[in-house]
Amino acid sequence: MSQIRKILIFNPFGIGDVLFTTPLIRNLKENFSCQYLAYIVNNRAYPLLKKNPFLDEIFIFEKDYWRELLKKSWFKFLKQYFSFLYNIRKKHFDVVFDLSLNSQYGLFFKMAGIKRRIGFNFKERGRFLTEKLDIPDGFSQKHVARYYLDLLRFLKINPKEYNFDVFINDTVVKEMENILYLDTKKNDTFVLVCPGSGDSWGKTAYFKRWPKTSFVDLCNKIKSNFCVDIIIVGSKVESDICKYIYDKMENKPINLCGQINLEQLAVLIDKSKLVITNDGGPFHIAKALNKKIIVFFGPVDERIYGPYPHSNDTFVFSRHLDCRPCYKGFRFLGCQYDKRCLREISPDEVFLIVEEILKNKK
What we know:
Helix content: 25-40%
Radius of gyration: 21 Å
CATH architecture of the largest domain: 3-Layer(aba) Sandwich
Number of strands: 14
Strand content: 15-25%
CATH superfamily of the largest domain: Glycogen Phosphorylase B
């Protein structure tokens, strides 16, 4: 271990996946405290890492940008590709944790001169890795964060199961105070509702979402029984579902869908009394911030992508059906039952938990 001076982590995926690596970051920094630790991340998840004190440098890699560049010009693509390769190579990394599950990135890191390339071998895509764990069926049986920690065995590290890390930006706190007149001395005055499921599932995102009519019924019950504000949030592509809930609610909530960035969302989550959300990025941010959470899991297995580590503050709603989970091997297999697993979760049963939380019984 004394010969390892510089370590790189590469994760090209979304918000949840990047947060799943934060226990890995902590373990590496703890075991190589004086060394250089860097991370390659995409633009969408970058705000979650930019204030992380355990990272010495962050590189941005946006695969959609590279794909578009390749379509437009081979010459420009190769020029920028080799420029990025040079920037990584000149850092002289000793180890890279390649979490991409894709052989083309393994080849890139080999060309960048990184001698130890650690990662997963899924469908023989780990051919350019020097040390790898076989996952023929993808992630199964345990949480993704634990799979990431399993890779530390190659560095002879016995990992600790840290919570996910999200570090709040004080400047953004002030911004949100000005936007919503939030009082930093008076937290827990509102319930945050996230009826979308993030952008990563694209056209199939519908199957990850608790029905919007159920969100309306639940929010109406909350407003009728408790003197709390409800704030609805989501990305721009989730504007329709957020507007639907806003329009159908009797006592209007605050609708910030498409109006705030990821750092501002983290501040809102941190100041909320309760977060009600589908499986997705906001859920994992809320878990990192140790908030009270109600979360709905449909196609995705909560044992693998759910709460980590276990907490009594997270209430998972799901249905144990023979067809579930239908997201396996990093693929959504489709649904023949119009997301029955989510439709069968009633607003009344969810409200029972909401009631206990807002009355401070849970």
